[in-house]
Amino acid sequence: MPFDYDLDFTTVDFRRHPELYRVGKGEQGVLLVQPYKGEILPHWRFRTPEVARESADTIYGLFEAYLKAHDFVGADMARKFLQMGYTRARRYANHRGGKKYDGPVPDDKKGQSGAHGRPELPRAPEDPVKAESAAIFKAKWDEARAHPDYQQQRAGFQDRYGK
Predict the structure, then answer these.
(1) What are the Basic and acidic residues biased-composition ranges (predicted)?
(2) Rounded Cα gap, residues 156 and 113, in angstroms
(3) Are the C-beta atoms of 113 and 84 separated by less than 8 Å?
């Protein structure tokens, strides 16, 4: 099922109401779903490989803790932050300043993924530091996606809630 952007994310506690959560595609909802955003975001950094390694390890530790607590929504959100570490570091590796698209995001599309009709800016020469940071997050993201407990809890969540 697609991610539901119509929920009131300022009031919904997804730990108490996991039935409202939708996995969606990719990183959908990563900066919306509480309390997980508040728990994971302070650890999310990719400026240098050293910072990225510490960040990815910390977020992966949260991922494992959520799995151990059978908190699939938390584990999936940690997985999304690992994915976002990869995609954002890649964006900065390819586009100085991290700006990939020309023009502002339309007001009705803020918080959603995608170009929304905006043209992509030309790529700059690759920044090797950001590329290494991206590789660190990619390895942890791949590890999270392949984790047997994650796969089992995801299947159970989708069976239970159809999402």
Answers:
(1) 99-130, 139-148
(2) 26
(3) no
pLDDT, tens digit only, all 163 positions of the chain: 678 889 999 999 999 999 999 998 889 999 999 999 999 999 999 999 999 999 999 999 999 999 999 999 999 999 999 999 999 999 888 877 666 666 777 777 676 666 667 777 666 677 899 999 999 999 999 999 999 999 999 999 999 998 6
Residues 6 or more apart whose CB falls under 8 angstroms from that of 28 comprise 2, 3, 22, 80, 112, 113
DSSP state of 24: -
From residue 93, alpha-carbon distances to 85, 116, 141 in Å are 12, 22, 18
Question: pTM to 2 decimals?
Answer: 0.86
Are 89 and 52 a contacting pair, CB within 8 Å?
Answer: yes
For residues 84-100, one letter each, b for 16 or more C-beta atoms within 10 angstroms of the residue's C-beta and e for the rest, the string is: bbbbbbbebbbbeeeeb
Residue type, 13: D
